[in-house]
Amino acid sequence: MTNPSDRNFDDLSKRFKNNIYGTPKGLLRLYALREDFSKFELGANNKLSVLDAGGGMGQFSLELAAKGHSIELCDISKDMLAGARQLYAEHNLESQINFTHCGIQDIPRQFNQQFDLIMNHAVLEWLVDPEQALITLYQQVKPGGWLSIMFYNVHGRTWRGIMNGKLHAPASSSERMAKEGIAPQQPLDPSWVHETLTELGLEVKSWRGIRFIYDHMHQKIRDRVGLEAIAASESEFGYHAPYRDMARYVHMLCYKPL
Fold it and tell me: In this structure, is residue 131 part of a structural domain?
């Protein structure tokens, strides 16, 4: 059963749409995902079965659907699913997708199959048990398939706080913030995620930071250099330590050996 303590965004779906995906922050996420998928030619030569796990409004899976891939999108939030249905309808791609209302823990019961590609983007940091979620997702990937994991980085949050004058370790979130905020309250250590994925038997083919420049750059400089230049610089440096370690989000693209 779905863990009732996992964050459900029925009450915040409009804020997510406007404050995340309708902003440069969301565009930088999409740029990074496109680049990583392109590097490994995922879906370039064959049609994939894709599970967008905790897919929200489906902004990235929409691009895969437009290329002819078959999408299953599940989310714990009915409001987010309604937004995804509307988005797919606007692009006349309803035939490429099925929607399922369920949490990550429910995936094995809801889907009697393994997938060529599973995406789990900006979800782990909202879960009570992210390790179990990774195990569940791993089990649903076909041998020879891929797992795309994007998560909120604890080091990026801490560094951002220090740059804003919070010269101490961040306190745990208040109950009100956990219920009402849209900033993830359980950021993850990339080294722990990498170790967990490797122990499961996955090969982490790509590890990059997202928004390690944008989030720490003064707004006047952002405006002067422009988003395209920032995206290009994030691409140049984002796959390498120490730059990726300061990113707000981390993306790992993992292969499951045959």
Answer: yes
